[in-house]
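Hello Y.,

Per our agreement to keep a running log of every chain we model this quarter, I'm adding this entry. I've kept the format consistent with earlier entries: sequence first, then predicted structure.
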Amino acid sequence: MERNEAARLHEELKSEIEYHNQKYYVEDKPEIDDYEYDMLYLRLQNLEAEFPELITPDSPTQKVGGPALNTFAPVSHTVPMESLHDSFSEEELLDFDRRVRETVEHPIYVVEPKFDGLSVSLEYRDGVFFRGSTRGDGVVGEDVTENLRTIRTVPKTLKESVPYLEVRGEVYMSHKSFLALCERQELHEEKPFKNPRNAAAGSLRQKDPRITASRNLDIFIFNIQQIQGKELHSHAESLELLKKLGFAVSPLNQTCTSMQQVVDRVQEIGEMRGELDYSIDGAVVKIDDFAQRELLGSTAKFPRWAEAYKYPPEEKETILLDIEVNVGRTGVLTPTGVFDPIILAGTTVSRATLHNQDFITEKGIRIGSTVVLRKAGEIIPEVVRVVSSPEASEPYVLPQVCPSCGEPVFREEGEAALRCQNPECPAQLVRHLIHFASRDAMDIEGLGPALIEQLVANELLHSPADLYKLTMEQLVSLERMGEKSSQNLLDAIAKSKGNDLYRLIFALGIPHIGQKAAKLLAGRFGSMEAICFASAEDIAEIDGFGMIMAQSLRSFFDLPGTAHLLGALKDAGLNMQGEVQEVQSLFAGKTFVLTGTLPTMTRKEASDLVEKYGGKTSSSVSKKTSYVLAGEEAGSKLTKANQLGVPVITEEEFLAMLEGNA
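Predicted structure for the entry above:
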C-alpha cells in the first residue's frame, strides 16, 4: 500500500472508531457489535504497525476507553485503570506467552472470564465504602458513588477492616434482569436497551439513584488496585482476600501452570457462555506473581502482564420455516421467525425477532430462506444475513390488519413499525389500562401496574370501561386486597368520573396526543362529541397542532372500537363535557421557554398562564423562541438564550406583561 493511501485510510479508520467510541462509551448506544468494532480497531493497529509514522497522540490506539461525562463529578485514578491488549486466536495467545518468557521464567497464569459490562473502581477507608467511580479514559472517571451504593453485591462495610483499599470490578446486568427491563420499557413505550452491557452502563449513569436501584445491577470484583495494611504477593492470593472481605468474585477463575492449560481453560470458558446468566465477551489471562508483573511493566496503554482473548460471535446456518406476527402491548406488530432448531452459544435456538418490514425487506428474508443466526450480546438471537432462498419463494409482507383484533394497522410517518391503534385491542389491554389510570390521565390512586395485571389475569377487565363495573366482592377475592384497600380503590374510580374532559382525552392514549394537546382539544371543542365529529382540517387549525396530529386523531376516532369504548364510558357516567375557552391573544404567536426556579410560582403555573393568553411553551431554546422566562439556577438554557440573543425576562417582568405594563 502506498503511503498516501495508507494516510487516507488511517484518517478514515480513526474517524470511524472515534465515532463508535462516542456511541459506546459516552452515549451507551452502540451501532455495531463488539466483534465489528474489534476488527476495525485491529485494522488500525495493523496499519500503524506497517506505517509507524502515522501514529498520532489522538489515535484511538493511544487512548483508553472514552471521556468522562459531565453528568457526574470527575475522579482522578491514582492507579490508572488500564485496558488490555486483545488476542483473537490461539497463535496470538502463544505470542503473548513468548513475550512474557523473554523477561520472566516459569510464569504462572490466572485465567478469568472477561465480563461485558462497565468497569468501576470501589474505594474503602477503614473497611467502609466511601467512593465509587467509572473507568472513564483510564485516568479520569465519573463519581457514581450513590448509584453504586444501590447495588446489593457492593459491600458497604467489609468483613475485615482495612486502612485503605481500592478494587476494580465490572458492573453488569444479568440476562434475567435485562429481559425484565426490556419488557418494562416496551410497556411504557420506551426504546429498550440493545444489550445487557448498554443497560448496565445506562443504569449506572442515572441521575436518580432510585432508578439505578430498580435495575437490579450486580458486580464482579477482579482486581485489587491499591491496599494499605496488608502485603500481597500474587493475584490468586488477592482473589482469596477479596472473597474473605465479602466481595463477589467470579467462580470461573483458574490458576494454570502451563500455556496449554491456559488455552484449554480459555476454550472451556468460551463453551460455557450460553449457560451463564451474564454476558462475557472473552477471557483474560494474567501473570499471577506480582513481582513478575513489576518486571514486565506496561506500555503507554496496556499492561504487558495480561492479555484479553476475545471470542468471535458464534454464527450458524438454519432454515426459516415460518413467520409469526404478534402484537405487543404498545400495539406494534412484531414478526418472529420460526427456524429449524440449532444449538447456538450453548442453547437451542428456534425463534428470533425479525423486527419490522424494513428489516425483512433489507435482508431479503423469505419463508424457506437459509439464514445465518447469531446471538446479540450472547442473549438475543438475531438474523445476520440470508444465504439463499428457494426460487419459488416470494418477498414476505406483514399483514395489513391486526392479528389480535382484526382492525387495520397503520405506519406512522418516520416510524419503521406497523401499529394497531384500536383502544379495545386485547393484546394492548394492560398497557392501555396502565396509561388510563396514570396520574396525568384519570389519576386513579391505588390502581398500579401489578394490580392491573392481576385484574386482567382474573378476567375482570376487558377494557377501561370495565373499571367502572368492579365490585367489592370481586376486589376482595384478589390476593393482597382487603376490604379497606378495595373500598379506597372503588372510591378513587368513582372520583375519576368527574375529572376534567382533557384528562379523559389524554387517557385514551391517542397517538401524538399528549396532555397539552388534550387541553387544547377540550378548550377548542368543549365536548367529546364535538371532537368526535370534528374534521382533520378543523383540528389542524388549533395553534400547536399540525396535520399529522390532526389525522392521527381523526383516524383514532374513526375506529369502531373507539366509538364502542366512548359509549361505554359515557354510560358509566364519566364526564364528557368541558368548557370552550376564550383564548386571549396577548401572547398569540409567542413561544416561551421556562428555566430555573421562579420566586412565587411553579413553572407549570407559569406555563398555564402562557397558554391561557394564547402562547406556547417549548423545552428548548432556538432562534424562534420569543422569550426565556428565567429563575434561579437557570443553567444551559439561559446561556443559549444569551448566545442567540433571545430576550430573557424575570417573573416580575412576565407578570407585568400580563398586567399590560410591559
